[in-house]
Amino acid sequence: MIKVFLLFAYILTLSTSFTISHSRKPLQELKNGKEVYLQYCQSCHMEKGEGMPELYPPLAKTNYLKDAKKMIGIILKGQSGEITVNGKKYNVEMPAQEYLTDEQIADVLNYVRNS
Q: How buried is 25 (Cβ within 10 angstroms: 0-12 exposed, 13-18 middle, 19+ buried)?
């Protein structure tokens, strides 16, 4: 639970403003996020985040990603059960990605939310 909270705070800080001074560079974070996405997310959510109809939900053009804390939880713990994204129902399990580092999760969420 503490890891989820700390990661949420980290992502919130990164996604609210790129003008915040920190040791990592925003463009590098987006590049890193794209690499994580291509390696771990693209096979289900497709290259541009459009998902696969009736199987995997889209990540692009959706309000589903607005809740960063919820997204962190889904990445860390996985997702099962029916969800509705853009008015369509999906019921395919997403496995936990708990092996990703906090930075990888922050970077991939920032990449997806800014792409």
A: exposed
Is the pLDDT score of 22 beyond 50?
yes
CA nearest 13: which of 103, 115, 112, 76?
Answer: 103
Report residue 115's pLDDT band, with 50, 70 and 90 as the boundaries: confident
54-57: long-range contacts, CB 8 A cutoff, minimum separation 24: 54/90, 55/90, 55/92, 56/90, 56/92, 57/83, 57/85, 57/86, 57/88, 57/90
From the list 113, 82, 112, 100, the residue with the least C-alpha distance to 4 is: 100
pTM to 2 decimal places: 0.77
